[in-house]
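Input chain follows. Return structure tokens only.
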Amino acid sequence: MTRIQHPYDTIIEAFTPSKIPSDLAVCIIWLIVAICSIYIPVINETFLRILFGLPLILFIPGYALIAALFPGAKDIDGIERVALSFGLSIAIVPLIGLALNYTPWGIRLDPIVTCLAIFTLCMCLIAQYRRTRLPKEERFFVPFHSIRQSIFKEFHPPDSTRLDRILSAVLLIAIIAAIVTTVYVIVVPKEGEKFTEFFILGEKKMAADYPTRLIVGENASIFIGIGNHEYRTINYTVETYMMNVTFNDTTNTSSLDRMTRLDRFIVPIQHNRTVITPYSFVPGSTGYNRVEFLLFNETVPLDTVKGMDRINNSYRDLHLWVTVR
């Protein structure tokens, strides 16, 4: 009597570790390594983050989708498969970002990485299952072993002389050096202009609705933003002051009459990161017409440096004109 195979037998067979196609295994391993290079400290500050992250955006998702759509070897040829992998990846990632834009998570690093990982893994599992359903001779596979042997024979043919082997070795080293140099130039670009962003936002995180009418003893809330583009981690120091400034219309100059420190705090920020911190302050008395925000990088002057000298010694400075009642 012929045994009727239960459908779950096919599913179990499809997902046994020994049945994982080599190309899908490479995709999964690359995905894991890319996630590690993004989140593991120290490593995520090196060029490895870009080296493994770019294929995760530009190639891997599209390749997994193509593998799921076309499990057969004769469905499409290799050049079409590679070209569609790049094209679909460039389409998939923006669509995932667009969908995340309408969710509570928004377009941020963690949701994007999570969605890309889930999408890629799902497509790899579907591709593996669909290939298992096909006869073995009809399944698509990447002949890594044959490619490796072909490359070895190309550079080391059996009838080659010693000089030919030396020249082949030199050529191989030159090709590898060119590839490494190209990758290095791409992932480690030349340092651009070094600068720091320093800005304040209203209570709705917009460049509007600033608290300009203050009441003694009541909180006033804003947001202080710092963007580090200095190509190194910096421990910034922020100082806030209540000031009274008098403007002389005759000489067209202003003079500082009174300056009282409200607060001082440190904000450590890595390169290419922007931190927006909520900040509240309480005016202690009337007689002030300006709130001053000073930003210092590694060098903070002594407290004996006061007034306009302290403002001039700051790395960046901002202010709000206010009325205190």
